[in-house]
Write a structure and sequence with these properties.
By secondary structure, this protein is an alpha/beta fold. It has helices spanning about 15-25, 40-45, 60-65, 80-90, 110-120, 135-140, 150-160, 180-210, 215-225, 235-245, 265-275, 280-295, 295-305, 315-350, 355-360, 375-385, 395-415, 420-435, 440-450, and strands at about 10, 30-35, 55, 70-75, 100, 125-130, 140-145.
Length: about 475
């Protein structure tokens, strides 16, 4: 083994790690690999990595000795404590100027902390969000690096080479920002993914239960949708799922238990939305929908106690199918608008300098939420860098204007037929709230002032000037020292 000959090293040879290594090798980079269990390394070298230039290492000492300086070390291990433990194990071998890259689904506060801790030792840290699953890792993922900006030039050629390429040839990888920005943007990506998946499932449920579409019909509907404004990876794979048959020739989908799992990134997005006071209602409902699906035993009991009265659909099935498609499109726009609002709020709070148009372009290919729709977001932010919401951009304003009636009709039909559509409903409620000049929060503030002297603002006085009323004549005129909207 030649000393210092590898361009980059990767620790953690689970499927994602292996596929990234093979991807790097395909693009001409020499990669050194280490896995805690050397047997896994040997299997990899004898199997998928056979006849490649990949270097297998038995221990960390030989692993670090194999790397060119500055040493670029990528971790592909389970998020959380394992990352911290691995950093501690590697510290004796790291030197000033070396670069540690965490490619797992780490929580952004951990990346903030790790970047600061390693910076104090003169070591650079890049928290890198990677989307696209196993296939993406092997043939081109969407990559979202953030952290030590000084390290970006040293990893940029590798990352942009292995990243997915958009139709215009641009790599779906660019520098995101400081601290934990890379993992934060990946977290929001995953939150949007939760929302996208849930609204598609709700559309499927409406078509199945109200329009009485068969599985073959659903396949055809989704194939058609994938040719138009809904064209996306998730619509494409849903069409494939509808056509997949079990060994007995029946649709496999009908045999899958209706209990959804989750790994936490959608939940993190919802928690961050609460922390940033950002109304990311659709993603929150998508998380809660998965939680509700997990209550299978309770739902079975409740179904017996509260049977749904079957109301025959009297309308035009073809028209309903069209409206469901438009409803999904409208909800998708609203979901992305919420996601970008959240990123803007977080960037302000964390002092990150995010390029929102660039983020949308990174998501065009390679990632789970890749879709035709994303190409419209960059122009929106190019026209107005300070755009407060995608809903205020002329293109998206027009699109919501022409599809909101369908969203309204689908939500209404679902309510009348007892079909739950939490995300479609949340999208509609957010839209109606966002476009409302007057909301009932005036009564809410009066209530808060009544029982807690929390004060209120008046429409006939300047903003920022607060008032308290002694509503009962007994409470006195002393108001609360703090005001929280």
């Amino acid at each position: 083994m030649a000393t210092g000959s590898a361009d980059i090293g990767l620790i953690g040879l689970a499927v994602m790690g292996q596929n990234l290594v093979l991807n790097m090798n395909d693009h001409g980079f020499k990669v050194a690999v280490f896995n805690r269990t050397f047997a896994r390394t040997e299997e990899f070298l004898a199997g998928p990595a056979k006849n490649t230039n990949i270097i297998g290492c038995k221990d960390l000492k030989s692993f670090f000795a194999s790397l060119k300086r500055p040493r670029r070390v990528m971790f592909m291990v389970k998020a959380g404590q394992p990352v911290d433990d691995l950093i501690e194990e590697c510290l004796p071998f790291l030197e000033k100027g070396d670069i540690v890259i965490d490619g797992g689904n780490s929580h952004y506060p951990d990346s903030e902390r790790r970047e600061a801790a390693l910076k104090s030792k003169g070591i650079f840290f890049i928290g890198t969000g990677i989307s696209g699953g196993e296939e993406g890792a092997r043939h081109g993922p969407s990559i979202m690096p953030g952290g030590s900006a000084e390290a970006w030039p040293h990893v940029k050629p590798i990352f942009q080479a292995i990243a997915a390429k958009a139709e215009d040839g641009e790599p779906c990888c660019d520098w995101i920002g400081e601290g934990g920005a890379g993992h934060y943007v990946k977290m929001v990506h995953n939150g949007i993914e939760y929302g996208d998946m849930q609204i598609i499932c709700e559309g499927y449920d409406v078509l199945r239960k109200i329009a009485q579409c068969s599985i073959p019909e659903l396949h055809n509907v989704f194939v058609e949708w994938d040719k138009g404004e809904l064209k996306s990876y998730l619509i494409e794979i849903s069409a494939q799922i509808f056509s997949y048959k079990d060994t007995d020739g029946q649709p496999l989908l009908d045999k899958i238990l209706d209990v959804a799992g989750q790994k936490g990134t959608g939940k993190w997005t919802g928690i961050s939305a609460f922390e940033q006071d950002s109304p990311v209602t659709l993603i929150a409902e998508a998380v809660f929908a998965r939680c509700l699906s997990a209550l299978k035993t309770e739902r079975v009991s409740a179904a017996k106690s509260f049977p749904i009265k079957k109301v025959p659909f009297q309308g035009d099935r073809k028209a309903l199918i069209h409206k469901v498609g438009e409803a999904l499109y409208a909800a998708k726009i609203i979901s992305y608008a919420q996601g970008f609002m959240l990123m803007r709020a977080a960037a302000k709070a964390m002092n990150w300098h995010l390029n929102y148009g660039s983020i949308a372009m990174i998501w065009r290919e390679g990632c789970i939420i890749r879709s035709q729709f994303l190409g419209q977001i960059k122009p929106a932010f190019e026209k107005d860098r300070d755009l407060a919401s995608l809903l205020l951009d002329p293109f998206f304003c027009h699109e919501i204007g022409r599809t909101q009636a369908s969203l309204r009709d689908v939500v209404a039909a679902a309510a009348l037929h007892g079909v739950p559509v939490p995300c479609l409903s949340a999208a509609l409620s957010f839209f109606d709230g966002f476009r409302s000049e007057h909301l009932p929060a005036n009564l809410l503030q009066a209530q808060r002032d009544f029982f807690g002297a929390h004060t209120y603002e008046r429409i006939d006085q300047p903003r920022g000037k607060f008032f308290h009323t002694n509503w009962t004549g007994k409470g006195g005129n002393v108001s609360s020292s703090s005001y929280n909207a």
